[in-house]
User: What shape does this take?
Amino acid sequence: MRLDKFLKVSRLIKRRTVANDVADLGRVSVNGSPAKASKQLKEGDVIKIENPNRVVSAKVLKIPQGNVSIQESITLYEIVE
Assistant: This one.
């Protein structure tokens, strides 16, 4: 699954266009290296999102096959930092 779609489905970022913009600005890294919105994710990857007021690191636990419910979205990742 693409990085921007995972961020939207997992609700780490509310909109896919915002996820694209954040990735284009270089504020998202996967496993320590800067990532574009089209980066393909796999289970075990660590995503780091740098917002102006906080930094969030999350480990990908599960890649969904489509849209998921709000209750299921929190099971897709684990906050590392």
User: Anything to note?
Assistant: The chain has a mean pLDDT of 93. Residues 3-79 form a domain with the Structural Genomics Hypothetical 15.5 Kd Protein In mrcA-pckA Intergenic Region; Chain A fold (CATH 3.10.290.10).
